[in-house]
Amino acid sequence: MFNRLLDSSFLGEGYNMSEKDLKRFLKYVVIGNKEDCWEWKGTIDKAGYGIYSVRCKLFKAHRISFAIYNGFLDPKLNICHECDNPKCVNPFHLWQGTHKQNMNDRDRKGRNITGHLYGEDNKGAKLTVEDVKFIRENYDANVWSTRILSETFGVCQTKIRQILNYEAWKHI
């Protein structure tokens, strides 16, 4: 399996892995059985994914692992984790899919960690449900203008307009 990969450019044009690259890659992997996550022990990016360099170009470690063990890698597709562990490079936990399929998988598993929490559930929210109701009920360009409301509630005028137009806080 490995020999045919070493002769091909499965990481993209001009980025085939040498035997030395492959051995170095495997040094960063704790290989277990099919059910266990094979944790990447090398460099990790901000999102928690392993990264690996081949001739000064960085690749995600799970993408390389998928390609090594499956013999192909579609550069247009994501390599998704069945286990939801970004450090995992176990090829039995990885599958190719579109961005939409990956997001659907995330949502189906209830692990939407992208910050799409609504209203007061969002820890970064500056407003409360009561604030939003007040803004919508009391907006009057002559008395409670968007400028006065934004200064009163400590948000920008754009946010006030979004609230008034139901583009923000739609659920209220």
Structure description:
The chain folds into 2 domains: 2-108, Homing Intron 3 (I-Ppo) Encoded Endonuclease, Chain A, CATH 3.90.75; 119-164, no CATH class. A hairpin with a 2-residue loop joins strand 1 (51-54) and strand 2 (57-60). The model is unreliable at 1-8 (pLDDT under 50). The strands form 2 sheets. Strands 1-2 form a two-stranded antiparallel ribbon. A two-stranded antiparallel sheet has the order 3-4. It starts with a helix and ends in an 8-residue tail after the last helix. The protein is of the alpha+beta class and 172 residues long. The protein contains 7 helices and 4 strands.
What are the salient characteristics of this protein?
single chain; alpha+beta; 4 strands; disordered N terminus; 2 domains; two-stranded antiparallel ribbon; two-stranded antiparallel sheet; Homing Intron 3 (I-Ppo) Encoded Endonuclease, Chain A
Task: Give the spatial strand order of the biggest sheet.
Answer: 1-2
Largest sheet: 2 strands, antiparallel
* Poorly predicted tracts of residues: 1-8
Based on the structure given, which CATH architecture of the largest domain is correct?
Answer: Alpha-Beta Complex
Number of domains: 2
Radius of gyration, in Å, reads 24 Å
Order of helices and strands: HHEEHEEHHHH
Strand content: 5-15%
Secondary structural class: alpha+beta
- What oligomeric state best describes the polypeptide chains here? single chain
User: Percent range for helical residues?
Assistant: 25-40%
Reported by name, the CATH topology of the largest domain is Homing Intron 3 (I-Ppo) Encoded Endonuclease, Chain A
Could you tell me how far the N terminus lies from the C terminus, measured between alpha carbons in angstroms? 57 Å
| Overall pLDDT | 84
Main CATH class of the largest domain? Alpha Beta
- Overall body shape: elongated
Q: What's the count of strands?
A: 4
- Individual helix count: 7
